[in-house]
Amino acid sequence: MSDPTLLVLSSLAGGDKHGYALMEDIEHFAGVRLGPGTLYGAITRLEERGWIRPVNSKDRRQPYTITGAGREHLHDQLANLGRVVRAGMRRLENA
Amino acid sequence: MKSLIRFLARLYPSDWRKRYGAEFDALLEEAAPSAGGAFDVLWSALRMQMTTWNLGGIALAGSVAGVLVAAAVSFALPPHYLSQAILMVTPGDESVPANESVPRVVEGMEQNLYSRDYLASVIHEHNLFWRERLRMPLDDVIAKMRKDISVVPLPRASSGNRDSVTFVIQFDYSDPCVAQQVNEELTSRLIEGGLNSKLATHSTFWVPEPPSLPLKPAASNRARITAMGLFAGLLVGVTFAILLRSRRSTTAS
Asked: pTM higher than 0.80, yes or no?
């Protein structure tokens, strides 16, 4: 899984985070180091679609939280991915 | 590296910088700088810029990029020199009208000039196109040489004598001295071909202007290359803009 928007949503599903914390968390759970440009490209798209929103903060490092619609979208995407993973694994076992 | 990345971050669209600039700069300060990170910021900034442009803007940017690349290519091309000679042919057989005999004489001259064996011998004798010969078969090099030779008959009126035909013989090469030497051979070969023609038994061949030694490079095809770059850039820009528009509409729906 290398879609940056899914990685960001998955990370925020575990709690609110700012940019650098997102990069670290994604590298930790997915083994993928997103570049700053890629990360903020994903954040921009996710915010435009209403799947994440900024959280009030006095820090320059802006934290984000996942919205209800974002959670729903993430759930659908992961369910689809899960079906692909299970089908692939079954076929590998039967091969 | 950090200052380079900070500079690259300024390439984002100004509206985007207003919204995300401060937090993005905070992230850049915290993240370890790297060449990969710099490229990532540059690429993302360019993509972000393109999403804010309209079709005309992208097409314009493509055209400008095409012109710049083509102009750079045209300046990087090596100079070439054009040696030129003038040859006059006056048919001697008065029983055959000039408008019938001259084209047949010319045909014989050109066949003699452009023959594969002859051009191959000239290429080897003068060590022409040695770079091309390293990577191309000889037949392709000969085809290239044929393109660099030009034999153009001038209109009758300009020759002064209604019965004679005047030719401009040109050879284009990267070395001016070699261009002249080869053109001398080509001119002799043309005359030889004409003399061997049955119709030209009594014809007179005269070279009022022997092959010149070009002192300056010939005008390059810069204008043509740049125009091609403009066209290619425009085509790429419009195609990209259409793809981007269809992708945007797909995403929106």
From this structure: no
